[in-house]
Amino acid sequence: MRGTTRKRATRLTIAVLLAITTIAVGVAPSFANPSDDVEASQAQLEAARTKLAELQQKFTALVEDFNFARVQLAETQKELGVTQGVVDKAAEAAHEAQHALATRTVAAYQGGTGSALDLLLGSDDFTEFADRLEFLNQVAANDADLAAEAQVTGEEAQRAAEELRSLKLKQQQETEALAKAKDEISKNIGEQEGLVNKYKLQYEDALAAQRAAEAAAAAAAAAAAAPSSGSTSNNGGYSNPPTSSGAAGAVAAARSMIGKPYVWGAASPSVGFDCSGLTSWAWGQVGVYLPHSSAAQYSALPKVSRDALQPGDLLFFYSPISHVGMYTGGGSMVHASNPSNPVQEISISSYYWDVYVGAARPG
User: Fold this and answer.
1) Candidates 95, 99, 292, 335; catalytic one
2) CATH code of the domain occupying 2-210
3) What pLDDT, in 10s, does the model give residues 27-52?
4) Residue 13 pLDDT level (bands cut at 50, 70, 90)
5) Distance in angstroms (rounded) separating the CA atoms of residues 23 and 37
6) Over pLDDT 90: what percentage of the chain?
7) Which ranges constitute the DSSP H helices of the chain?
8) What long-range pairs does 222-227 form, CB within 8 A, spacing at least 24?
9) Read out DSSP for 289-347?
10) Is 335 tagged catalytic?
11) Maximum separation of any 2 CA atoms in the chain, in Å
12) Is the dihedral of CA 277, 282, 287, 290 positive or negative?
């Protein structure tokens, strides 16, 4: 049993060293800025997911080694208790045998009733004397043998106990090393999960940007191919073309986010949008920077009258200004309205016209 345990302990030592080496060398993530290219972002994401799966597998294996080490430690502790009991009994037997031998020896030389000397002097003849002397010698020899055997047994048990105590200490060290490695891998798993989430968001943003660019290009091509029409008032259901390909791209980008959740303070396809987050992100896809604030956007941009609205223009509502949407033509707008609704395109109802403040034109 002890030989098997020692072999297992050695194997665990090697496993711990390999695990720690892997942690130190193999899991350090690269935080290089990812390319906006969708394929590059996807490759980073897949690589991060693969590394995460490897870490999870190593963690699972290490946990099982840790569990086994704890079982072995408990068995060693139990065996140590049994061996210590043998040591204690052997020591007690040796002590008793030595004490009995010493008592008999003293009594033999002190004389007195019942002593060995009385036994010898009470012999009737030499033959009886010799027999009694031989008997006493045999008793003394047996006592000495018992004392020596008890001492040897005690020493052997003591050595076994020392070996077990040494093995217990080693197994405790193995268990502590395994626990440390397990915690380290668990920490790296958390970091790797964060990296996977980061690359996932970047990949989704890159993919959304690519789709928005494709939609913008398609919208621009359609606008260029469409016959021009006379200017009409469009404050309630008219359809004027965008003033530029940039505006067409911004509209296409905003429409590509329809269905995304409303998330306060957010401006990311992978997370969601609030109202100014949507307009700043959509115009950002065509290279126009807008602050992430409806009031700041209104303040920074040139104003447009209601009867001159074009797709891509921003519409501002409430006083003080606290909501913005993007005009898409035909009396409609796309906006992120509130937490109960996702990004949506709606026909601008009388409610919104009643709280309308003004419009502005990016680009």
Assistant:
1) 335
2) 1.10.287
3) 334 333 333 567 887 788 888 888 88
4) very low
5) 30
6) 26
7) 2-26, 38-110, 116-121, 126-225, 245-256, 275-284, 294-300, 350-354
8) 223/248
9) ---S-HHHHHHHS-EE-GGG--TT-EEEETTTT-EEEEEEETTEEEE---TTS-SEEEE
10) yes
11) 156
12) negative
CA dihedral 162, 166, 172, 173 (to 10 degrees): 160
Tokens 């409806």 label which residue? 294
What pLDDT, on the 0 to 100 scale, is given for residue 146?
65
Tokens matching residue 253: 């980008």
Question: Topology of 245-360 in CATH?
Answer: endopeptidase fold (from Nostoc punctiforme) (3.90.1720)
Instruction: State the average pLDDT over residues 135-158.
Output: 66
Who's near 192: CB < 8 A, 6+ residues apart? 27, 29, 48, 51, 52, 55
192 contacts 48 by C-beta, under 8 angstroms: yes
Query: What integer pLDDT is reported at residue 344 of this predicted model?
Result: 94
**Ranges of each domain in the chain:** 2-210, 245-360
Residue 323 among the catalytic residues: yes
pLDDT band at 91; cut points 50, 70, 90: low
Tens-place pLDDT, residues 217-260: 776 776 666 554 444 334 443 345 555 578 999 999 999 999 99
Token look-up 């915690």 returns 183
Pairing of strands 267-268, 323-329: unpaired
Question: Would you state the structure tokens that stand for residue 220, as one six-digit string?
Answer: 């621009």
Q: Which of 95, 99, 275, 292 is catalytic?
A: 275
Q: Is 95 annotated in the active site?
A: no
